[in-house]
Protein backbone atom coordinates (compact mmCIF):
# COMPACT_ATOMS: atom_id res chain seq x y z
CA UNK A 1 0.00 0.00 0.00
CA UNK A 2 1.42 3.38 -0.97
CA UNK A 3 1.94 6.14 1.60
CA UNK A 4 -0.99 8.05 0.09
CA UNK A 5 -3.23 4.97 0.28
CA UNK A 6 -2.18 4.41 3.90
CA UNK A 7 -3.08 7.99 4.81
CA UNK A 8 -6.45 7.68 3.05
CA UNK A 9 -7.15 4.41 4.89
CA UNK A 10 -6.12 5.94 8.24
CA UNK A 11 -8.33 8.98 7.59
CA UNK A 12 -11.24 6.63 6.94
CA UNK A 13 -10.61 4.84 10.23
CA UNK A 14 -10.45 8.17 12.09
CA UNK A 15 -13.82 9.16 10.64
CA UNK A 16 -15.47 5.79 11.34
CA UNK A 17 -14.11 5.77 14.91
CA UNK A 18 -15.03 9.44 15.48
CA UNK A 19 -11.36 10.18 16.32
CA UNK A 20 -11.51 7.86 19.34
CA UNK A 21 -9.50 4.88 20.57
CA UNK A 22 -11.42 1.63 19.89
CA UNK A 23 -10.74 0.37 23.44
CA UNK A 24 -10.87 3.26 25.91
CA UNK A 25 -12.58 5.91 23.80
CA UNK A 26 -9.89 8.58 24.22
CA UNK A 27 -10.74 11.45 21.89
CA UNK A 28 -7.86 12.42 19.62
CA UNK A 29 -8.64 16.09 18.92
CA UNK A 30 -6.56 17.45 16.07
CA UNK A 31 -4.48 14.26 16.14
CA UNK A 32 -2.86 15.50 19.35
CA UNK A 33 -2.24 11.95 20.62
CA UNK A 34 -1.74 10.36 17.19
CA UNK A 35 -3.77 7.18 17.46
CA UNK A 36 -1.82 4.03 16.54
CA UNK A 37 -2.85 1.71 13.70
CA UNK A 38 -3.33 -1.61 15.49
CA UNK A 39 -2.93 -4.88 13.58
CA UNK A 40 -2.94 -8.60 14.16
CA UNK A 41 0.72 -9.62 14.32
CA UNK A 42 -0.01 -13.07 12.86
CA UNK A 43 -2.16 -12.03 9.88
CA UNK A 44 -1.18 -8.33 9.51
CA UNK A 45 -4.92 -7.52 9.35
CA UNK A 46 -5.63 -3.99 10.60
CA UNK A 47 -8.05 -4.00 13.55
CA UNK A 48 -8.44 -0.26 14.16
CA UNK A 49 -6.89 2.78 15.81
CA UNK A 50 -5.81 2.75 19.45
CA UNK A 51 -4.28 5.28 21.81
CA UNK A 52 -0.67 4.59 22.75
CA UNK A 53 -1.66 3.27 26.18
CA UNK A 54 -4.13 0.70 24.85
CA UNK A 55 -1.87 -0.29 21.96
CA UNK A 56 1.03 -0.86 24.33
CA UNK A 57 -1.22 -2.62 26.82
CA UNK A 58 -2.48 -5.26 24.43
CA UNK A 59 1.07 -5.70 23.20
CA UNK A 60 2.25 -6.39 26.74
CA UNK A 61 -0.51 -8.99 26.99
CA UNK A 62 0.92 -10.61 23.82
CA UNK A 63 -2.30 -9.87 21.87
CA UNK A 64 -3.78 -12.88 23.67
CA UNK A 65 -7.55 -12.83 24.32
CA UNK A 66 -7.00 -15.62 26.88
CA UNK A 67 -4.46 -13.61 28.86
CA UNK A 68 -6.64 -10.49 28.67
CA UNK A 69 -9.68 -12.43 29.97
CA UNK A 70 -7.52 -13.73 32.81
CA UNK A 71 -6.37 -10.16 33.58
CA UNK A 72 -10.03 -9.08 33.79
CA UNK A 73 -10.75 -11.95 36.19
CA UNK A 74 -7.76 -10.89 38.27
CA UNK A 75 -8.91 -7.27 38.40
CA UNK A 76 -12.35 -8.42 39.52
CA UNK A 77 -10.72 -10.34 42.40
CA UNK A 78 -11.34 -13.78 40.89
CA UNK A 79 -7.91 -14.99 39.77
CA UNK A 80 -7.89 -18.09 37.58
CA UNK A 81 -5.56 -21.04 38.16
CA UNK A 82 -1.93 -20.58 37.14
CA UNK A 83 -1.52 -20.90 33.38
CA UNK A 84 1.39 -22.75 31.81
CA UNK A 85 3.24 -21.37 28.76
CA UNK A 86 2.05 -24.27 26.61
CA UNK A 87 -1.62 -23.47 27.27
CA UNK A 88 -1.04 -19.74 26.75
CA UNK A 89 0.34 -20.23 23.24
CA UNK A 90 -2.66 -22.27 22.01
CA UNK A 91 -4.99 -19.29 21.69
CATH architecture: 3-Layer(aba) Sandwich
Which radius of gyration do the C-alpha atoms yield?
Answer: 16 Å
What coarse outline follows from CA principal-axis ratios? elongated
Strands of the widest sheet, in order across it, are 1-2
* Stretches with pLDDT under 50, minimum 5 residues: none
Bin the helical content: 40-55%
Report the major sheet: 2 strands, antiparallel
Work out the strand percent. 5-15%
CATH H-level homologous superfamily name = His-Me finger endonucleases
- The third-level CATH topology is His-Me finger endonuclease fold
Tell me, rounded to a whole number, the average pLDDT.
85
H and E order:
HEEHHH
Number of strands: 2
Distinct helical segment count = 4
Question: Could you provide a short overview of the structure?
Answer:
This protein is mainly alpha-helical. The protein has four helices and two strands.
Q: Describe it for me?
A:
This protein has one domain: His-Me finger endonuclease fold. The two termini are 29 Å apart. It is mainly alpha-helical and 91 residues long. It has helices at residues 3-16, 52-60, 65-75, 85-88, and strands at residues 36-39, 46-50. A two-stranded antiparallel ribbon has the order 1-2. The mean pLDDT is 85. The protein is elongated, with a radius of gyration of 16 Å.
Write a concise keyword list for the protein shown above.
91 residues, mainly alpha, His-Me finger endonuclease fold, two-stranded antiparallel ribbon, 42% helix, elongated
Amino acid sequence: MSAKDQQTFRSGLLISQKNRCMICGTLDKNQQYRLCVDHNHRTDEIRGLLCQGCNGGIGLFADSPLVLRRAIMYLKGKPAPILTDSLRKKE
